[in-house]
Amino acid sequence: MRAVIQRVSRASVTVDGETVGAIETGFLILLGVFGNDDEAESARLAAKIAKLRIFRSDKKPIDAAVTDVDGSALVVSQFTLCADTRKGNRPSFVRAAEPKRAEELYETFCDDLRGHGVPVQTGRFGAMMDVELVNDGPVTILL
Length: 143
Description:
By secondary structure, this protein is of the alpha/beta class. The chain has helices at about 40-50, 100-115, and strands at about 1-15, 20-25, 25-30, 70-75, 120, 130-140. Strands 1, 2, 3, 4, 5 and 6 form a six-stranded mixed sheet that branches. It is globular and about 45 Å long. The mean pLDDT is about 95.
C-alpha cells in the first residue's frame, strides 16, 4: 500500500456535484493498493498513520497525533499511486490491485483506522472524484 498523508484544516470529496465526504482538522489520505497487499499491510499502515505525530502541540509545531487534536481522516482511493513510470511516458498500472480486491482492502484500511479511534470519512471507490483541501503547513508525508 502507498499512502499520501496531507495534514489539512479541511478537505472534502464531491462526486457528480454531491459532497460524499468532508472533514475539518485531520488527514486527507490518498491510498493506493498494490496487487500483493494484504490485511496485515492494511493493519500496519493504519496503526502507523493513527500514531503519526505531525500536528501542532502546545510544546512543538510537529508533536501530536490526529487523535490528540480531535481530528479525523478523509480516505480517498487512488490507484494512480501504484503507477510505474520507469519506462516510456505512459504510466503502467499493472502493479495495482484488481478493483474488487482493492476495494476490499480500502474498506479494511478504513475500518482499521477507525479501530485506532480515528473518525473516518471516505470518497466513493472507483468514482471520478473532485477532491478539495486546505493543506495545513503545508505538511505532506508519503508512506
